[in-house]
Known about the structure:
This protein has helices spanning 13-23, 43-59, 93-96, 124-138, 152-155, 166-170, and strands at 4-7, 64-70, 73-82, 107-115, 141-146, 175-180, 184-192. It is an alpha+beta fold.
Amino acid sequence: MTYSTKELSLGTFKDFEKLAVKQGGCWCMYYQRPRPLARGMSTAEWRKVNEKDKRKFVREGKSHAILVYDAEMPVGWCQYGTREELPRIDAGRGYRMLGPVPGDQSLWRITCFFVDRQYRGKGVAKAGLHAALKSIKDKGGGLVEAYPVVSKKMAAVPEWRWFGTPSMFEKEGFEKVAPLGTSLLLMRKKVRGRR
């Protein structure tokens, strides 16, 4: 299938919203916060706060994602961003144990994919990843990290594949760096910026 892609923006937010409602309420906010939201919040409150915060970050230019379309219908997304935009990774014990990121280059992260149930296994995540890497290149490039699932138990559940798989990142030139616990793998790729 041939897909088109667009950057997440206020102009595409309604398309993102259509997918976020299907995704369950996270609104791809988990990695945008350094710490989780306060406990004791109802599911409805949690969803509402996530939507409000996502809209605010998009308005401020602090949230990046690629939306994937089949014709005019949004069918998936790939979230990416700078280390500052996606700070939750730094809180992981396994990640902290690896020490500082090598070099002084910009650090980008690819944290989440969401694909509409009817489009899973049809190349949507691949299209989103490819467009995210192109966007990172257009923004100056740098070191790009990904955290795909390696746990066979988790990978068997479609919802857990929102991190991607090692093979999809290997096909885009990412290299394995280190395990992050027993479930995830840190992978990295250098992307040269446009000149």
